[in-house]
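Late entry, written up from scratch paper. The run itself happened at the end of the previous shift, but nothing got recorded in the book at the time, so transcribing now.
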Amino acid sequence: QVQLVESGGGTVQAGDSLTLRCAASGPPFSQYAAAWFRRAPGKEREFVGTISRVGTVRQYADSVKGRFIISRDNSQNTMSLQMNSLKPEDTAVYYCAAYFAVTGEVSRAVDRYRQWGQGTQVAVSS
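Output as recorded:
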């Protein structure tokens, strides 16, 4: 199974930008749909964005649409989340996740994802 490791978290001010990266190892990353989720303190894990195997389909949560951009580079086995205009409510631990998928398939459901990274903390101060 693919192994996932996130990086790029940190502490920023409201309005700043930050880019998270997810590095995959093991089977070809191009076989997997992937996504970013986040968990804020005291809250359930929530969907942020998802991308299909070759990036032709992307979906976002309403709370981040227009501010966050998800992308992937299968030649480098990486996925990124560019976060712009960050808000204090974006503070959370961000996780990348993946599941073996068919072409064009994506999912917003936590339970659909079988492989998870360990998470990276993002803190946004006002």
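The radius of gyration is 13 Å.
(Scratch paper discarded after transcription.)
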